[in-house]
Amino acid sequence: MKTIYLWVSGEGWKTFDFENCKEELELREISIGNGAKIGNGAVIGYGAVIGYGAVIGDGAEIDYGAVIGHEAKIGNGAVIGYGAVIGYGANIGNEAKISDGAVIGNKAKIGNGAKIVKTIFITGSKHTVNWYDTGIIHIGCYKKEIEWWLKNYKLIGEKENYSSDEIEEYHKYILICQQLKQSCQPPA
Question: Residue 35's Cα: distance from chain center in Å?
Fold first, then answer.
């Protein structure tokens, strides 16, 4: 028998037989797509959406309002935070921790034990900007260290036919990421 844990108001987390808990899932507005596989001891929060063919590992925790894309794989013991979005076909490793509100793109791979604590996703006027608390910024198809971006943003902007206003727009995004990185570092 496969079991999952669901929150019961006034009682806390309770175990349910996965095969016979459709009504309990509906009460919590949890949606699990056809062909999805949920591992033993998985915890699924209120309003979570798990896509078709997704695989949720044993002991994984999917928090309130999280969305797991079609055919995504969530490793054993992984934790997906409140409102996080895991894209189509993404692969989240065993024991990985994805924080509240994080957005992990389609086909992304997050390794075993990885911790994605702070993230930012910006839709700019030309390309998206992604920063994952690693010191790396993705802008369009470029993936570089913050320091590199600070030295080269004008050159890349010109190469990619950005206007001078767009170059300054993206410079501000880079500075935001730099400030976030600094605020996330523990005090010396």
Answer: 22
Buried-exposed string 32-57: b where 16+ CB fall within 10 A, e elsewhere: beeebebbebbbbbebbbbbebbbbb
Q: What is the tens place of the pLDDT at every residue in 95-135? A: 888 887 788 878 888 888 877 667 788 889 999 898 876 78
From the CB of residue 177, how many other CB atoms can be counted at a distance below 10 Å?
24
Indicate if 71 and 153 belong to the same structural domain: no
Q: Are residues 79 and 141 in the same domain?
A: no
Instruction: For residues 167 and 161, give the distance between their C-alpha atoms in angstroms, rounded to a whole number.
Output: 9
Domain of residue 35 covers: 3-116
Same domain? 11 vs 64: yes
Check: CB of residue 56 under 8 Å from CB of residue 74.
Answer: yes
Compute the C-alpha angle 116/184/110, nearest 5°.
15
pTM listed for this prediction: 0.60
Looking at the fold, whether 7 and 41 belong to one and the same domain comes out as yes
**pLDDT by residue (tens digit) across 66-98?**
889 899 999 999 989 888 889 888 899 888 888
